[in-house]
Specification:
The protein is α/β, with parallel strands linked by helices. It is about 30% helix and about 30% strand. The strands form 3 sheets. The chain has a 6-stranded mixed beta sheet, with helices on both faces. GO terms for molecular function: ATP binding.
């Protein structure tokens, strides 16, 4: 049963295989009350697999997961947790031959709609029209209203701003900030790095089903330090520019790109040996951090799960 002191999300050794295909492996992390937690990784990394296990849509191969202290593999406990949950999937799908108002009426009867009118003012949609006539942006706004109108303590979201224009995206970010101020928790999967930097407190980075980083956003950026782009008259080999503090280095023609932990003196000493034609030094961005973990991988790779495991309904996780 729900424990008021339990974290909204707790995962320990969570593993999911589809036959011989790895979806997620040995994931361990905790999302505390009031967190806005970003779950990062390109398509195919295992983000959606982990979310489906949390929602009880998939059974884990090994490991455990809890929502508010409720075991997600126990049907009665999962139902108890879902009373406090809102779910916004990456592929929003509604019945096309019903109106937006009928959709919200349906979800409202299931779990409540205290914040419905307020949310419709912030994310307006043509309620009288059938959903088949909606643009992708209106479908996403309808899903946002359906997800949050019962004021859930925890929202689990998979690419929540897909299809939204920049103004609506900013409104959504402000809404999540307000939820956080009220002690509500948000967990979102995303590969939009500017979005993660804007709203998240902590991030988990997943690669090939494994969690490879779990840190506060600010700490992750601080550890990545400095990015240096330098063009030299000479053409030294990459190893000639390596020194303690350099975490990565590559070359494009006569331009060298280094990521280092603010070892400015060592950088100056090393560059003194060459003729510097151009030099740019800047603080690392979240994009730099991401490429450090994923450099060279195809972010458009398909998710490594069977199509039949994709959740079709917009907010089934909340009811």
């Amino acid at each position: 049963m729900s424990d008021s002191s339990a974290p909204p999300i707790e995962v320990e050794g969570l593993t999911k295989y589809y036959g011989d295909v790895r979806g997620a492996e040995d994931l361990t992390f905790t999302v505390e009350r009031g967190d806005i937690f970003g779950f990062l990784g390109p398509n195919g990394a295992g983000k959606s697999t982990a979310i489906r296990v949390l929602l009880g849509l998939l059974a884990p191969t090994e490991g455990d997961a809890w929502l508010f202290g409720n075991d997600v593999t126990d049907r009665a406990e999962l139902l108890e947790a879902k009373r406090r949950l809102g779910y916004l999937p990456s592929d929003v799908a509604f019945y096309d031959r019903v109106s937006g108002e009928e959709i919200l009426d349906y979800f409202g009867r299931i779990r409540g709609d205290d914040r419905r009118e307020e949310l419709l003012e912030r994310f307006p949609v043509p309620l009288e029209r059938d959903v088949k006539a909606y643009s992708s942006g209106n479908r996403q706004k309808l899903a946002i209203v359906a997800t949050f109108m019962h004021d859930p303590d925890l929202a689990i979201m998979d690419e929540p701003t897909a299809g939204l224009d920049p103004l609506v995206q900013n409104e959504f970010y402000e809404f999540l900030d307000e939820r956080q101020a009220q002690g509500k928790t948000s967990f979102l999967s995303s590969h939009v790095l500017s979005e993660v930097r804007r709203i998240c407190d902590r991030v988990g980075i997943i690669r090939e089903g494994r969690l490879i980083a779990l840190e506060e956003v600010g700490e992750l950026l601080a550890e990545s330090g400095t990015v240096v782009h330098v063009r030299l008259a000479e053409e030294p080999p990459l190893e000639a520019l390596e020194f303690p503090g350099v975490s990565s280095i590559d070359r494009d023609g006569d331009a060298y790109h280094l990521v280092l932990s603010r070892e400015y003196d060592a950088l100056v000493d090393r560059l003194h040996e060459y003729t510097v034609e151009d030099l740019e030094v800047r603080e690392a961005s979240l994009e730099d951090v991401f490429m450090h973990f994923y450099g060279g991988e195809d972010e458009n790779e398909d998710e490594d799960v069977p199509d039949g495991d994709v959740e079709p309904a917009a907010t089934d996780g909340g009811g």
